[in-house]
């Protein structure tokens, strides 16, 4: 390999690294923004949970009402589905006979509006978590790529 | 929604404080399977780092879990274990809690990115 070939190869690797760094910065920004959105959505949900506790009493929403390993088995209403290297959330309708129970009913038979709105906030947060997962996986891939390329350039 | 794609889908797991767990369970992520294993852990005041670590490792070992959410404050308690987890699945997401805001400088993936930006000679 001539000196010119080696130089042009290094230039190409350098350009590739630059574009990977740009992708990395974009993903870091999107990743952080997504976490901030999760924080906002969760906080808004937590305020509504607190309002429900205030209206219904402190014991209306506690971990004591959450099922434990000794409770009857039940299925998750939402699952993570992966298509073309991207995850998304799919929801199952409530079907008590098949084990898809309504989580709201653990806490109240007649849930107040604040609790229903809190559920909507947390559903939104679950969608954001899926988006954040996609960004994080993409970022990890870019970091691995940069690491490999830097090592091969250094050799 | 096709039933088949739903059945083939994986779960989300959560390790967090009461509000985080209650919220996500209300959102519909909770499950207790036939082996009586749950996909959530409520961290109480007296929960130790060893218990969180053990639960985290149990979730990582399960092949039906795709995403593990953990409050950043509890991720800090088991930072070594989380930093060692480099596999893309299950993806570990450090999420903020009610009392502790999200700190990007503590997040494992962003710490890795910061490491990449350091000149080669100064990296460990």
UniProtKB/TrEMBL annotation, chain A:
One of its GO terms (molecular function) is unfolded protein binding. GO terms for biological process: vacuolar proton-transporting V-type ATPase complex assembly. It comes from the Eukaryota. This is Vacuolar ATPase assembly protein VMA22. It comes from Drosophila rubida. The lineage of its organism: Eukaryota, Metazoa, Ecdysozoa, Arthropoda, Hexapoda.
UniProtKB/TrEMBL annotation, chain B:
GO terms for molecular function: proton-transporting ATPase activity, rotational mechanism. GO terms for cellular component: proton-transporting V-type ATPase, V1 domain. Keywords: Hydrogen ion transport, Ion transport, Transport. It comes from the Eukaryota. InterPro entries: ATPase_V1-cplx_f_g_su, ATPase_V1-cplx_fsu_euk, ATPase_V1_fsu_sf. Belongs to the V-ATPase F subunit family. Coiled coil: none annotated. V-ATPase is a heteromultimeric enzyme made up of two complexes: the ATP-hydrolytic V1 complex and the proton translocation V0 complex. The V1 complex consists of three catalytic AB heterodimers that form a heterohexamer, three peripheral stalks each consisting of EG heterodimers, one central rotor including subunits D and F, and the regulatory subunits C and H. The proton translocation complex V0 consists of the proton transport subunit a, a ring of proteolipid subunits c9c'', rotary subunit d, subunits e and f, and the accessory subunits VhaAC45 and ATP6AP2. Subunit of the V1 complex of vacuolar(H+)-ATPase (V-ATPase), a multisubunit enzyme composed of a peripheral complex (V1) that hydrolyzes ATP and a membrane integral complex (V0) that translocates protons. V-ATPase is responsible for acidifying and maintaining the pH of intracellular compartments and in some cell types, is targeted to the plasma membrane, where it is responsible for acidifying the extracellular environment. It holds the Pfam family ATP-synt_F. Transmembrane segments: none annotated. This is V-type proton ATPase subunit F.
């Amino acid at each position: 390999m001539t000196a010119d070939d080696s130089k042009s190869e290094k230039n190409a690797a350098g350009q590739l690294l630059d574009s990977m760094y740009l992708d990395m910065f974009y993903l870091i920004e999107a990743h952080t923004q997504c976490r901030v959105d999760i924080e906002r959505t969760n906080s808004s949900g937590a305020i509504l949970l607190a309002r429900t506790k205030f209206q219904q009493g402190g014991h209306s929403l506690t971990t004591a009402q959450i099922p434990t390993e000794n409770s009857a088995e039940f299925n998750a209403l939402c699952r993570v589905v992966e298509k073309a290297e991207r995850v998304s959330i799919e929801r199952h309708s409530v079907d008590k006979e098949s084990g898809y129970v309504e989580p709201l009913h653990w806490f109240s038979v007649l849930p107040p509006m604040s609790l229903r709105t809190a559920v909507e906030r947390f559903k939104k947060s679950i969608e954001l978590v899926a988006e954040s997962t996609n960004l994080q996986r993409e970022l990890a891939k870019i970091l691995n790529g940069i690491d490999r390329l830097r090592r091969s350039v250094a050799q | 929604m096709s039933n088949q794609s739903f059945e083939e889908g994986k779960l989300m797991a959560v390790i967090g404080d009461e509000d985080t767990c209650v919220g996500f369970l209300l959102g519909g992520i909770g499950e207790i399977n036939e082996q009586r294993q749950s996909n959530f852990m409520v961290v109480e005041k007296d929960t130790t780092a060893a218990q969180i670590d053990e639960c985290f490792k149990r979730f990582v070992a399960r092949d039906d879990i795709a995403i593990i959410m953990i409050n950043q404050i509890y991720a800090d308690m088991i930072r070594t274990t989380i930093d060692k987890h480099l596999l893309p699945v299950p993806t570990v997401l450090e999420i903020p809690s009610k009392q502790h805001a999200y700190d990007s400088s503590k997040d494992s993936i962003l710490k890795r990115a910061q490491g990449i930006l350091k000149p080669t000679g100064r990296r460990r």
